[in-house]
Amino acid sequence: MKQWIQHSERPTRAGFGEGVLEAGILNNEVVALGGDITSSVGLDLFAKAFPDRFFSLGIAEQNAIAVAAGLALGGKIPVFSTYGVFAAIRAADQIRVSLCYNRLHAIIGGAHAGISVGPDGATHQALEDIAIMTSFPNMCVLSPCDATQARLAVLAALGYTAGPVYIRFGREAVADFTTPELPFEIGKAQVMNYGADITVIATGHMVWEAIQSAVTLRNQGLSVRVINMHSLKPLDEDIIIKAAKETRRIVTIEEHQMIGGLGSLVASLTARNFPVPVFSMGINDHFGESGQAAELLLKYGLTADHITRKILSICK
Amino acid sequence: MDDQNLKELQNMSRSIRQWIIRSLAEAGSGHTGGSLGLSDVFTYLYFKVMKHRPNQPDWEGRDHLILSIGHVAPVFYSTLAHAGYFHLDELLTLRKLGSRLQGHPGKDHGLPGIELSSGSLGQGLSVGVGLAISKRINNNDTCVFVVMGDGELQEGSVWEAAMSASHHKLNRLIAIVDRNGLQIDGKTSDVMEIEPLKQKWESFGWKVLECDGNNFADLETAFDKAISNVVGPVVIIARTIMGKGIPSIENDYRWHGKVPSREQAIEFQKDLEDL
Fold first, then answer.
1. Do residue A67 and residue B129 have CB atoms under 8 angstroms apart?
2. How does strand A231-233 pair with strand A198-202?
3. Distance from B112 to chain A by nearest Cα, in Å?
4. CATH architecture of the region A190-315
């Protein structure tokens, strides 16, 4: 079993910000749009480095998305980031028509994804963004597992010119455990741990939890395959079907509604290709609430321990 | 504008209207009233104001036209065809399966001259803002024209865009509001009052010009002023008559989204001959 070691604890939004800065250095056409929460979503690094390529648009997400479309029409590569609830949900029609229907290359950062946003509560916890964003044609949806991959996701998005890219990331400091050398390829998921008894497909912060669970279960004689599904659209269908065939049971886990999220994507794909039981872990048709991140993850059953118990109940 | 010039513009807008009627009667659905009302504005834009090359639609030196009210696609398509972007006969494929002339402009279907797929109201001005910013970064002093409806101004996102255009002092951004006073449910003043319109735009930091959108001399004055403005964004509130050119349907809001039957279309063509 590959050993994943936490080398630091950082919020994924920090990696996003570093990625945007780097994208700006690599490509002069990259511009960024601010929605008043510039530093909170990691765009302050870019804004300081490239003041002439940063445009403040205030608290007006619908406008910002369509302005991004105009910039892309004019040959720029716009990056707009705000909380996922405001980007993916408030401005959904602008994303659908002005960006997706026009196949315009823009990078949208969906910050504060998941229940681990914590004390801000339900209005600020994006739990439906995957469902909405993956349903739009021409849209690419990424959900990196840690700060290192959040940075890589931005750089991958920079090269993905077929349309807009939505990158989902979280608020809290979490384990940073991948390395920059690990290739981050859109549409290609990563097997973090090879196993034969059951597969856990996780996305975002839940990948680390899944790895921890696999370590625990290994000591109990169970071999758990862990897949980091950082690319939700295009979805790595081959790796999922292969897992279905080889391990016959799949658990999915995400900080998102079970309706329309990773669990739905995996269940519908396997149902169409190689039906196996899919056990979804996520938010079960419920709004979030205030609390510390750790308290909320515990309450809503999104920890390594919950995965372990789920797998033991399935494999008993 | 001399008489010769005026005559040419009038003949062009008449032909654009005739083809709007032909294409809509053939399609069996679509938006007649607004398309006829805007025919003079489109004629003036494409034959007098805009820098563009129909044989080279992606020419870098062109002005951009963003059609925010996608439902007036018939006047847009008829104008593009008259300007030489594609053959007039193709106008008869409007709204049919496999046509490049979608019900609302869809770039994916390959019609030359479309800058942006549109149809959901309240987005075009924002796209114009982004485009104008990109031109400024590139030291490109061409213009961005955004055509909007008056009912569309009820969308709150329009005012987000208006605020951002003046904040960023985008002087090459020119919005045109089709002020025909009507929308699907009736008069804008009954459905949702948008007046005082001039003061609204002014308070959002825009220079406001008002004109008769069915009068070429008036359009000339307005566009000359708009293009020479160097301070910030300009909006031209163009008063138009919905259904202009067909006396029996003029100013009748029921013709927003209704099309003539084949028999009516013949009558309408006669009306246009007399225009």
1. yes
2. unpaired
3. 14
4. 3-Layer(aba) Sandwich (3.40)
